[in-house]
Amino acid sequence: MIPKFNQIFSTFKFIYIPSVGDKFELRDKGVPFGYPGDNDRKIIAINKLGEEKVVIESIIESLPELATGNSLGKLSFPVGSTRLYFVEYRPSSDGSPLNVYAFDLKTLAFARLPNASRYYADYGSKSLSPDGKYIVTITNHDNYSDKQKIFLLDLNKDSVGTIVSLSGNEVVDQCSDRGDCWGSYNDMKWVDNDTFEYSVYDSTKYIDADWKTYTNTKYNYEFKYPNDWKVESAYSYKSLQETDNAYVFWEGEEMSGGGVTLVVRDDITYFDQNDKVIDRKEQIINNIKWNILNMRSDSQDYSHVKIAYTIFKDKLFEFVSIAGSDYVPYNNKFDDILSTFQFIK
Fold first, then answer.
1. Please, are residues 31 and 38 in contact by the beta-carbon 8 Å criterion?
2. Which of 18, 86, 106, 144 could form a disulfide with 72, with the two C-beta atoms 3.0–4.6 Å apart?
């Protein structure tokens, strides 16, 4: 019995169980840059006497699902809470946050928060409440639709609610994906733990004064597009050879998939039973009801497209843009162009 006792005793060690009254810090482990573990960090608790205790010696060992090379940064350490919140990021990249994790002070275990991860891990504007328990955010998901919404994240419940939903040309995303600023921007701020302020913008103000106007008198519509873009009949455009009622708008020297194509179809049921449609929703833009579709593509050059179409006088008017796997259009003028579309007499 004695050898077995000695073996067990040799593995015994004290574990510090932190108190909700402690203060917490996230510290580097001091590994020189470029060496294995240089992204590792530890969690320190500081009690009321100023004494420091190690809560987690190695985040990498405590969170094995953390991607290689990634690290955790502080998101929120609410006073009096039994949970600490961290955001996963890649130190070598300027990309957006990747995931949100909660660290339970009772079980000393990490848990990924799926809802917070989806709505916080984005380039959108974010603002943490003074008590560190809530976040208001604007995401880049779903394009124009989410430029009209502000979401509230409850970190403790990992729940998401829409608390602002605008209509028409009003948006809360000042950048509007125009590429002249990084991600979304809104000067929203918390007044106290129960109140926050935000700004509302007119999406049409982002249209430059020198944009050209394309007018079609056959079908009585018009819209604006950038002054330096070219326009050409899409009759020869390989995916639209079946119609001569299509035009493609693009920037650069050659017609490319990064442009925006407008198609007028006689078949108003064209998208009703299309098996390539992944999802669809309705959106009112500039007083016109648009159907917004995410679709698969048969093209060998690209696999996803973003479609916006509306039906007027027994014709289907369709805007098309090649998109990434997240269905965000490659061309960041897609929403701006769509917001200027109108029917004329």
1. yes
2. 86
Contact 259, 279 (CB under 8 A): no
What tokens were used for 76?
Answer: 């929120």
Question: Which DSSP string corresponds to 151-216?
Answer: EEEETTTTEEEEEEE--TTEES-SSTT-SSSSS-----EEEETTEEE---EEGGGGS-TT-EEEEE
Residue with structure tokens 């984005």?
Answer: 122
Residue pLDDT tens, the chain, 345 long:
455 555 555 555 555 667 767 888 888 877 777 667 678 888 888 888 888 888 888 888 888 888 777 888 888 888 888 899 998 887 766 556 788 999 998 888 899 999 888 888 766 778 889 988 998 888 755 555 667 788 888 999 999 888 887 776 677 766 544 444 444 566 778 888 888 888 777 666 656 667 888 888 888 899 888 888 878 776 544 444 444 477 777 665 555 556 788 888 888 888 876 777 777 888 888 788 898 888 777 665 566 778 899 999 989 998 888 776 655 666 667 878 888 899 987
- Asked whether 191 and 130 are in contact (CB, 8 A), the reply is no
The region that residue 177 occupies, defined by phi over 0 for left and psi between -120 and 50 for alpha, beta otherwise, is left
In CATH, what class is 207-343? alpha beta
CB-CB contact of 43 with 103 (8 Å): yes
Q: Is the dihedral of CA 67, 69, 70, 73 positive or negative?
A: positive
